[in-house]
Structure formats: structure tokens, C-alpha cells
Amino acid sequence: MSRDSDRMTGKAFDLALVRRIVELVRPYRGLFAAAVAAMLVLVVARLLSVEVLKRLVDGVLGPAITSGRAVDALREAYSGIAAHAAVIGGLLLGSAALQVLQMRCMHRVAQRAMRDLRARLFAHVHSQPLRFFDRNPVGRLVTRVVGDVDAMAEVLTSGLDTICVDLFQLVLIVGWLLWVDWKLTLVVMAVLPPLWIVSKLFRDHSRRAFREVREKVAQLNSTLQESVQGIRVLQAFGRERKAAERFRREDRELRDAHLSTVRSFALLFPAMDILSSAARVLLLWWGGREIAGDRLTHGELVQFVLAMELFFEPIRDISESFTTMQSSMAAAERVFSLLDRRPEIESPAGGLRPARLRGEVEFRGVTFAYEEGRPAVRGVSFRVAPGETVALVGATGAGKTTVASLVTRLYDADEGAVLVDGEDVRRFDLAALRGGVTVVPQEVFLFAGTIEENLRIGDPRLTREKLLAACAAVGADRLLSRLPDGIDTVVAERGASLSTGERQLLAMARALAQDPAVLVLDEATSSVDSETEALVQAAIATLQKGRTTLIVAHRLSTIRAADRILVFHHGELREQGTHAELAAADGIYATLHRLQAAA
Hints:
It is a single chain. By secondary structure, the protein is of the alpha/beta class. The protein folds into 2 domains: 323 residues, ABC transporter type 1, transmembrane domain (ABC transporter transmembrane region fold, Up-down Bundle), CATH 1.20.1560; 238 residues, P-loop containing nucleotide triphosphate hydrolases (Rossmann fold, 3-Layer(aba) Sandwich), CATH 3.40.50.300. The chain is 64% helix and 11% strand. The chain contains 21 helices and 12 strands. A hairpin with a 2-residue loop joins β11 and β12. α11 packs antiparallel against α12.
């Protein structure tokens, strides 16, 4: 899936997609069968009501009216009229009950199937590597999981079963009409060729229009999500007007796409009404001739007129349902294209799951590029012994954070190998690897919820007591004592209600609670003041005890005590040694040290 994955191609009615949607219903096939059965019985009930009405006209009303004493005859036939009316009323009430049953069953099927699909999509998106999110805006992914899945639900609630039943109704009515009077049936059928042409033109145009609507919805959601996340920057630089102009432009494009679908409807339904009216005129003209020649009864003509309404009703319903299917197909294309994307990084079959890692980390000739032709690291080789603390330094863009990401297999090396405890990280079960290697990022992300929930991060093994002990160990207990509800305090989205330093301390506590064998600290003190830095450094010292530690550092003053320092420059490992050794070597590290000291 890429930024252009919204632009799909396909048939106006893709049977392969329909099969995949139907497959979602399999766990609820009992309810689906009940809905279809209710619709089939409903069709038969409607046809029976037409047959009863024909018998009423020919067997009761017709003889009474033509007897020469119509009023008296109608009085005498009152019981017959009442009996036929009661049967028709019973059939209509039964039809209404069946329709309620069908709608309830189908909506339950649809919502349960879409619930399963949303959960599957959510898990699938979270299984994708970071490279996937580098290429796909969050707004587009939200549209897939929420908007497109909702559009797909329409296939089940008012599309697929309706089309099946309407086709059954068409076949049944046509067979019945041919049996009653094949000549009159052919008169009605004369409008079918032009009706097919109109439907074909509509189908081709509407598929393109609905696909365009889904594209524009995804684009607008992406723009909205981006502008809300970047509101601080927009306001700081006074770019609200520009952002609003961009939103209005994309909103206009979405409006135009919607209007394109409306134009399709504006042509289709009047055309269908004209053709159905033409069929009625033909039917009445031909039927009148047949009655005049005693080849047709009044009841049979009434029967044909009503049956013709039942004939055009499914055609109209199929057109409307097909319209729904067009929108749903456009959504289903993108949903299934996302589901079909296999994660580039996943656990191997029978992956290694050691009880606890020893903590050895090694890079062997590793080369990696975020974009082809622009490697972030090239030919990097080094080894970190268990329990050793190694700092990674260098200018911005030198490749330090990339090294940290490769250790946890957020990305896979393009060349060479990354090893933990002597095993290629690609041989580990992902959960086992990432459970033993914990990263404290530069920008700590806290989810909306309580502090306890953010510290536990979904791990049921972490008790409240263990979380509180981890907070006390890194000095975050003082923060909890200042908060109104302590560890039960609810934090805002992204932890906006806490300072950068407070979020860092909570991230340290979260890492300590996991008890990892390898700790990766990615610029953990780069965004805090000197006073907070002292607290964070004390927390780091607690975290490092008995663990292999990789420290990605910008401030060289924070890593003097490291066992070894690796110096990166333009993606290559240029120097390594202790602080004293590198400072005396008068190389890249010494230059960086002098510049920071002067600053």
C-alpha cells in the first residue's frame, strides 16, 4: 500500500470482492439464511396477494357489476369481498412482519461482520513495520479502518441479499406472467433493452465517481489529522489561513466528487420512470385490445398491471442496491488491498523465545536505507558485551537512531546482520525480542488514560505494586505525590498535561517495570532543562544497573562515563573508544566536544 493506493482499478461489479465480503458472513450464516428466507417468503406473499385480487375482480366484482343489478349483487357478494380483503390484509401484515425480521437479521449480520473486520484491520495495521507508516499518512489509515469498513457494511444491509432476492422475484414474476399470458408478457419486456443500456451507462460512470469520493474522503481526513497534530506549528507561524485554504480546496474536491454521483442518480431514476411508464401504456393498450376480443379478463389485466409493478420494483431496487454496491466495492478494494499487504517484518515460524536475553548486541556489516539509494548507515560493525554501556554520538542524521531502531527490528537491515546473543534478530519471535530490548524514545508518547495504564502498556503481568516500585526507583514517585490522584491520574492525549521531563521520568519507570536485558536510550535528555536532566540522569543510572545499555546522545556531557563511545559520521562508524581516548585523538569526537564546550 502506498500513497497512491487509493487509486484502484477494477470491474464495475467485482465478483472476487463479493466473494470475500460474503466470506465475512460465514460465522453468521444462520442469521443470513434467516434473512434471505424471510425475503423469499415475502416475495411469494406479494404474488399471492395479486392472485387473490385477480380472483376478487373476476370471481366476485366482475359478475356483480355486469349482472344488471350491480348494487344488489354487490350486497350479496359482500361476504366474498370481505373474505378476499381479509386474505389480502393478512398477506400484507405478514409481509410487513417478514420485512422487519429480514432487516433486523441483516443489520445484525452486517454489524457483527464489520466488527470482526475492524478488529482484524486494526491488528493488521499494528503488525506493519515502521516503514509502512513512513509511507502512509495516518488520516488515510483511519479512513480505511473506520470509513471504508462502514461503507462495506452497506453491501450486507441493503445490497447483497436485496440483489439476490430481487433477482429471484424477477425470475418468479416473469415465469408466472409467461404462464398467464406470454404475449402480454412480451409487451412488458419490450422496455428491457433500453433499460439495460441506461443501467450500463450509469454503472460505468458511478463506479468511477464513487471511487473518486473514497479517494477524496481519505485525502481530506489525512489533511485534517495532519493540521490538528501540527496545530502548535501552524499557530506559531501564523499559517492558520493557509491551512484553512488547503482544507477548503480539498473539501471542494470532495463536494464535486459527491455531486458527480448525484448526477448519475439524477439521470438514472427519471429514465427508469419513463421506461416503466412506457411499459404501463403499452400494457393498457394491448390489454384493452385483448379484453375487447374476449381473450383477456378484467381480473387478468388488473393482475398484469399489479404484477408489472412487482416486476419494476426489483429492477429499481437492484439499481439502487447496485449504487450501494458501487460505493462499497470502491471501499472494499482499499480495505482488502490493505489486508492483503503482508508485513515486511514478522515473527518467523518457530521463532526463538528465550526466557531472558543475556544482552549481547552485535552489528556485522550493516547497511540500511529509508529511501532507496540514500543509505542511513553503511557497513556498520561493532559488538556490545552483556552489561556494557555504549554511547552512540554524531551530528544530526549521522545514523545513531537508525542503529537503535535496527536492534529492536523496527526495520530490517538491507545488508549485513544485527545479532542479539549471537542470533540474527530475524530468527527471534518479535514479542520475545522486543520484550527483552526496551527503548526509551526522545519524544515520549503517553496515551489518553491513567498513568497506571500507560506504565503497564497492556502487560497483565505488571502488578500495581511493581509499577509503583519502578516509579520510586527512578524518582517518579515525587511526581505521583504531586498529582491529584497519584498513579490513577488521567493524562491528556500524548501526555500534553505533563512536562517533557515528567513524561521522560514516566518512560523510565515504564522501561524499568519491563525489566529488559537490553536498554536503548534515544536522546533521553535532549529536550529537558538542566535541573530535570539531573533527575533523568539519576533515573538512567538506576536503569543501567545489570543491563546492556545503548545511549543515543546529543549532549556529550551525559555520556562521559560510558564504557565505550561509538562516533558516527554520514552513516559510517568512524571512531570508537572511551571519552578520554577520543578526546585525545583529535578526531570527529574531539571536534564535537570542543564545539559543545565552546557553546
